[in-house]
């Protein structure tokens, strides 16, 4: 079996996990929720194995020029899915709030579908500009950061769905319907903050490793290239989020919206810049 | 004091310290930064005029949009942001320092009654015993506590993560350090470039901003430039230049640089950046006199004549590295001693014998060729870069301690009652209150259970 087939299987398993989480929301059976998490874990392990296999395959194909599978758009989308599932599983382990799975696993699933169906998956040798150990550190930190923001965005959507109903809801008895199954708005708000708190330092590290690399490769740690600038825009937005939150109790709706706007900016930084604008990272778009 | 009674200076100070200003500036920086990613920066005027029209171009120039990250208004926002950072720190630091110097061992009634996280426990235990009991539970679940007696009541105080209060200051300081490093780099460093033709040397580079030459203070020679390819493909694997640093003609340093592996000497770094052809190819030919059988080596650059022998000379009219997959080929003409030129004829490196069929005075063979190239180097001197890295390190260190830890404090007041004692517990965290509220609920549960269990044990 090659890594590509294993990634295909992973995609199918994530699809199954998503369906199971949807069934959980419909049936409210906690055993089904646990099954959803176990299937997600299975998919995650398969994807980890596939990443390792692809790394190994790169040495088979390129000999001494093999490298970590973090070098083009296809590989970055796959890694983004992996990071998102990783962050979700950590949150699942700590908080056991499995409805979140129904909102986060689709993000990973669609990433995998997009990568497997329409992106160039070949293992090509690296252009000279990318031959650096900084590449690995830079990509890992950036994408774990992006994954944190993705989870925060999913949780924020749940928050906004729930808070509207909760405010109208009267009485002490628990809320009915799907929303009753969601974690309380207080927990969702807290998870939003926690996921961003994980994402923000990672993004900071990602920007710093990128700057360090640029300085080593070109002698300029910052050149206001569109990708750099957009990563800084994302950084500014989440910095504003954190400051608003830290000291002024800017919790709830506005925090949720800022988190969603932040993730939209993240997506633009990741994909929009390559597809719409031009700059130093243009090699990321062709794959 | 209300706003109306404050002096303008105080109000300005409050404005510069305010967190509202921080948030506004951060969002303003985020929004304005977009402009420079959509509108190309530092392009020639003609390009803007072609794309956006003359009047729009004038507008861009007046708003400094064509180099917006160095515009007065953008730097102004950054400067105001720095002032905001500094003012916030000056305002808040003494307060934070007080937390370290004078921890509040005895909770005020405001804390005990008004805290969002509070609970009351009734127990049959006497105050001293209850205090010991609570102190044990706290030590296990939270942290060690200090006992103080005041007004006939017992007070417990425990805290965790006080250093995290400094994380924010370290992070803020780190941003200022990064900015300082960037300013130093801009004032005392430069970005430049230089093209060196293989075999030649230079002691000057050209500034990228002013296009003025800059003296290096030493000499750099490029011995060779080449492109290496991945096996069995035309994909470039690396661009390499053999550079030599010379001072007063003495070789000091030698390095084969490549992309992602520069050469640094005396704080000046040379980065492989581009390459290109430098002049016409130089060919090595062998000329065999068909009458005598004597051979002569001739080196000739395309477009020039070179002496062969006996008054004959040869010139290269054109050269291709690959002629229809037959490999390197050159077009030659020969000039006889009388100055009469032959018709052009071809020679191929791989088919050396073909020229014998021409039956000229000489038979030419293409031995080798050299395409002279220049290597394009980016040259940077940045005395501020290590300060920037120091700032980055502090930023990571500071933000980690600020994000993942918060200063959490728990107070307890134990008062004697006819039935035993009443314990009031209050707690707060200096940030992430919702998160701490959840943690406090857990702590509260554990404390209550512990007291309940021990009273049950006594009853049973």
**Strand percentage of chain A:** under 5%
Helix content of chain A: over 70%
Q: Kindly, what is the distance between the CA atoms of the first and last residues of chain A, rounded to a whole number of angstroms? A: 23 Å
For this structure, the quaternary state is heterodimer
Spell out the helices and strands of chain B N to C: HHHHHHEHEEHEEEEEEEEEEEEEEEHEEH
Largest interface: A-B, 53 and 52 residues
Continuous helix count of chain A: 10
- Name given to the CATH architecture of the largest domain in chain B: 2-Layer Sandwich
Q: How many DSSP helices of chain B?
A: 10
> Beta fraction of the residues of chain B?
35-45%
Helical amount of chain B? 25-40%
Briefly summarize what is shown.
The complex is a heterodimer of chains A (287) and B (460). By secondary structure, chain A is mostly helical. Chain A is built from ten helices and no strands.
What does this structure look like?
The complex is a heterodimer of chains A (287) and B (460). Chain A has 287 residues and is mainly α. Chain A folds into 2 domains: 1-126; 148-287, no CATH class. Helix content of chain A is 78%, strand content 0%. Chain A has 10 helices and no strands. Chain A has helices at residues 3-27, 30-62, 73-95, 101-118, 134-168, 177-181, 185-218, 226-248, 253-276, 283-286. In chain A, α7 (185-218) runs antiparallel to α8 (226-248). The radius of gyration of chain A is 20 Å and the shape is flat. Chain B has 460 residues and is an alpha+beta fold. Chain B folds into 4 domains: 8-99; 103-161 and 406-459, Double Stranded RNA Binding Domain (2-Layer Sandwich), CATH 3.30.160; 190-279 and 374-381, no CATH class; 282-371, no CATH class. Chain B has 10 helices and 20 strands. In chain B, the strands form 4 sheets. Chain B has an 8-stranded antiparallel beta sheet with strand order 8-7-6-5-4-18-10-9. Chain B has a 5-stranded antiparallel beta sheet with strand order 1-20-19-3-2. Chain B has a 4-stranded antiparallel beta sheet with strand order 13-14-15-16, with no helix packed on it. In chain B, β4 and β5 (201-207) form a beta hairpin. In chain B, α8 (164-188) runs antiparallel to α9. Chain B is elongated and about 135 Å long. Chain B starts with 7 loop residues before the first helix and ends with a helix. At the A-B interface, α7 and α8 of A face α2, β7, β10, β18 and α9 of B.
């Amino acid at each position: 079996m090659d890594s590509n087939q294993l990634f295909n299987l992973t995609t199918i398993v994530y699809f199954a996990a998503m369906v199971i989480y949807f069934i959980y929301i419909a049936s409210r059976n906690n055993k089904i929720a646990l099954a959803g998490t176990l299937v997600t874990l299975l998919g995650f392990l398969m994807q980890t194995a596939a990443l390792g296999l692809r790394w190994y395959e790169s040495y088979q194909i390129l000999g001494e020029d093999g490298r970590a599978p973090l070098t083009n758009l296809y590989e970055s989308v796959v890694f983004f899915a992996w990071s998102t599932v990783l962050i979700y599983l950590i949150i699942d382990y700590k908080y056991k709030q499995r409805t979140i799975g129904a909102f986060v696993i689709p993000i990973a699933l669609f990433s995998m579908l997009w990568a497997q169906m329409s992106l160039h998956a070949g293992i090509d040798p690296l252009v000279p500009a990318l031959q650096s150990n900084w590449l690995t550190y830079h990509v890992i930190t950036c994408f774990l950061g992006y994954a944190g923001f993705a989870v925060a965005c999913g949780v924020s959507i749940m928050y906004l769905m729930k808070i509207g109903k909760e405010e109208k809801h009267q009485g002490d008895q628990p809320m009915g319907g799907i929303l009753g199954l969601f974690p309380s708005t207080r927990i969702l708000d807290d998870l939003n903050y926690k996921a961003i708190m994980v994402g923000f330092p990672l993004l900071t590290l990602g920007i710093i490793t990128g700057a360090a690399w640029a300085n080593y490769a070109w002698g300029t740690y910052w050149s206001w290239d569109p990708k750099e600038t957009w990563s800084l825009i994302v950084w500014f937005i989440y910095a504003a989020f954190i400051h608003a939150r830290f000291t002024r109790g800017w919790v709830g709706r506005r925090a949720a919206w800022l988190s969603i706007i932040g993730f939209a900016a993240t997506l633009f930084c990741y994909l929009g810049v390559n597809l719409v604008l031009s700059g130093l990272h243009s090699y990321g778009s062709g794959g | 004091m209300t706003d109306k009674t404050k002096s303008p200076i105080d109000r300005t100070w409050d404005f510069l310290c305010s967190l509202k200003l921080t948030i506004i500036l951060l969002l303003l920086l985020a929004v304005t930064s977009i402009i420079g990613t959509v509108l190309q920066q530092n392009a020639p005027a003609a390009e803007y005029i072609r794309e956006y029209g003359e009047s729009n171009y004038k507008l861009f120039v007046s708003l400094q949009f064509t180099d917006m990250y160095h515009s007065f208004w953008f730097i102004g926002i950054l400067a105001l942001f720095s002032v905001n950072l500094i003012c916030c720190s000056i305002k808040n630091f003494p307060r934070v320092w007080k937390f370290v110097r004078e921890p509040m061992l005895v909770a005020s009634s405001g804390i005990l009654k008004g805290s969002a996280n509070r609970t009351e426990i009734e127990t049959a235990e006497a105050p001293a015993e209850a205090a010991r009991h609570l102190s044990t539970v706290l030590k296990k679940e939270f942290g060690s506590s200090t006992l103080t007696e005041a007004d006939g009541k017992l007070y417990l105080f425990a805290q965790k993560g006080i250093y995290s209060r400094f994380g924010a200051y370290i992070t803020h300081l780190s941003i200022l350090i990064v900015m300082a490093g960037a300013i130093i780099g801009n004032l005392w460093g430069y970005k430049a470039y230089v093209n060196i033709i293989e075999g030649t040397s230079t002691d000057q580079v050209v500034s990228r901003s002013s296009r003025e030459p800059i003296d290096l203070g030493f000499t750099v020679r490029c011995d060779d430039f080449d492109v290496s390819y991945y096996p069995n493909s035309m994909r470039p694997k690396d661009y390499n230049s053999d550079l030599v640093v010379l001072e007063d003609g003495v070789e000091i340093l030698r390095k084969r640089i490549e992309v992602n592996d520069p050469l640094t000497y005396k704080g000046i770094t040379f980065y492989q950046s581009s390459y290109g052809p430098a002049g016409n190819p130089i060919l090595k030919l062998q000329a065999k006199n068909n009458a005598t059988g004597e051979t002569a080596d001739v080196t000739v650059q395309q477009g020039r004549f070179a002496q062969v022998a006996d008054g004959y000379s040869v010139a290269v009219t054109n050269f291709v590295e690959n002629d229809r997959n037959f490999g390197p080929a050159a077009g030659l003409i020969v000039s006889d001693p009388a100055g009469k030129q032959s018709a052009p004829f071809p020679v191929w490196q791989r088919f050396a014998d073909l020229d014998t069929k021409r039956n000229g005075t000489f038979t030419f063979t293409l031995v080798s060729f050299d395409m002279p190239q220049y290597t394009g180097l980016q040259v940077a001197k940045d005395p501020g870069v290590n300060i920037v890295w120091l700032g980055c390190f502090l930023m990571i260190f500071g933000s980690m301690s600020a994000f993942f830890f918060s200063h959490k404090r728990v107070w307890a007041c134990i008062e004697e009652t006819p039935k035993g004692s009443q314990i009031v517990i209050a707690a707060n965290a200096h940030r992430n209150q919702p998160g701490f509220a959840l943690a406090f609920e857990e702590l509260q549960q554990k404390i209550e259970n512990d007291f309940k269990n021990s009273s049950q044990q006594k009853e049973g």
